[in-house]
C-alpha cells in the first residue's frame, strides 16, 4: 500500500491523503472511495478518524481518499466546510492521471457529520438549480467543468436531516454551530445545507445505522430513506450491530458491512 498527501487549498486543514493498493503494471484503480470523517463538524475532530478506514479499504483493494476540511472552530462552518468538501472531492480530478485513477465510480463513505457532507455533496448538481444564495455570505461552488461527481454514498449513522437535528438540539447545538445561527435567522442557509432538500438524487445512498447508537438517532437515517423511497430514489436503510463508533472500527461487523456496501457501489 502507498499513501500520498496533497493540499487542495492553502489552509492547514485543506488536504487529503490518498491510500492506494498495489497494482499490476499497466493497470488502473477502479474508482475511488472518498472517506469523510465526522465529529459534529467541530474542529477538535479530524481526519485521524478516517485514517484506519482508508487504510483498510486500500488493504482490500480499493483506492481511498481520506479528506480533511475546515470545521467549525478552525475557519470552517458556513460556508467554508461546504466549499472544502467539494474542492477536496474535485482534487481527485487533478490526481487521476498521476495515480492511474479511474474516476468512473467515486463513492463517498461518510460517518456521522461526514455522512451529512457526503449526502449533501452527492446533490451538488441539484443545488446549483436552487437559486438560494445567502444574502450575506457566499455559497459553495457546486458545479463547473472540473467537478468530480459522486456516483454513490454509504452514510454511517449520518446526520441526514438537518431540520430535525436542529429541532432535537443534537450535540448541544451542533447544527447551529455549523451554520452560524438558527434556522429562523438563516432559513435559506439551512435549506441549502440539508441533504433532504435535494431528494430524490440520481445516485444511490445507503444509510447504515448502528442498532445501539445513542449519539445520532436512527431517525436521522430513517427519515431520509423514507423520503427518498417515497420519491422513487435508490436508497435503503441498513441496521447493523454496534454503537456510533463501531461503524468506523475496522474490526467490527458493522464496519465490514459498510466496506462491502462500498465495494458493491464501486462495481
Automatic annotation (TrEMBL):
GO terms for molecular function: hydrolase activity. Residues 29-223 form the BD-FAE-like domain. Keywords: Hydrolase. InterPro entries: AB_hydrolase_fold, BD-FAE-like_dom, GDXG_lipolytic_enzyme. Gene3D superfamilies: alpha/beta hydrolase (3.40.50.1820). PANTHER family: AB HYDROLASE SUPERFAMILY PROTEIN C4A8.06C, KYNURENINE FORMAMIDASE. This is Esterase. It comes from Pseudarthrobacter sulfonivorans.
Amino acid at each position: 500500500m502507498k499513501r500520498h498527501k496533497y493540499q487542495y487549498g492553502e489552509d492547514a486543514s485543506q488536504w487529503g491523503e490518498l491510500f492506494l493498493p498495489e497494482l499490476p503494471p499497466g493497470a488502473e484503480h477502479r474508482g475511488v472511495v472518498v472517506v469523510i470523517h465526522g465529529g459534529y463538524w467541530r474542529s477538535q475532530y479530524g481526519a485521524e478518524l478516517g485514517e484506519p478506514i482508508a487504510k483498510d479499504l486500500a488493504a482490500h483493494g480499493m483506492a481511498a481518499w481520506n479528506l480533511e476540511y475546515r470545521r467549525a472552530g478552525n475557519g470552517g462552518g458556513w460556508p467554508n466546510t461546504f466549499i472544502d468538501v467539494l474542492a477536496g472531492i474535485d482534487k481527485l480530478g487533478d490526481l487521476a492521471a498521476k495515480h492511474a485513477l479511474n474516476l468512473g465510480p467515486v463513492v463517498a463513505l461518510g460517518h456521522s457529520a461526514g455522512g451529512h457532507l457526503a449526502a449533501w455533496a452527492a446533490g451538488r448538481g441539484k443545488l446549483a438549480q436552487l437559486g438560494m444564495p445567502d444574502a450575506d455570505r457566499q455559497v459553495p461552488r457546486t458545479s463547473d467543468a472540473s467537478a468530480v461527481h459522486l456516483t454513490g454514498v454509504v452514510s454511517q449513522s449520518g446526520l441526514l436531516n438537518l431540520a430535525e437535528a436542529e429541532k432535537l438540539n443534537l450535540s448541544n447545538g451542533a447544527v447551529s454551530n455549523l451554520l452560524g445561527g438558527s434556522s429562523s435567522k438563516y432559513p435559506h442557509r439551512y435549506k441549502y445545507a440539508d441533504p433532504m432538500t435535494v431528494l430524490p438524487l440520481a445516485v444511490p445512498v445507503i444509510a447504515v445505522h448502528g442498532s445501539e447508537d445513542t449519539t445520532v438517532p436512527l431517525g436521522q437515517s430513517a427519515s431520509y430513506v423514507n423520503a427518498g423511497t417515497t420519491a422513487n430514489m435508490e436508497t435503503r436503510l441498513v441496521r447493523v450491530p454496534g454503537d456510533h463508533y463501531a461503524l468506523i472500527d475496522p474490526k467490527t461487523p458493522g464496519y465490514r458491512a459498510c466496506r462491502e456496501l462500498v465495494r458493491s457501489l464501486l462495481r
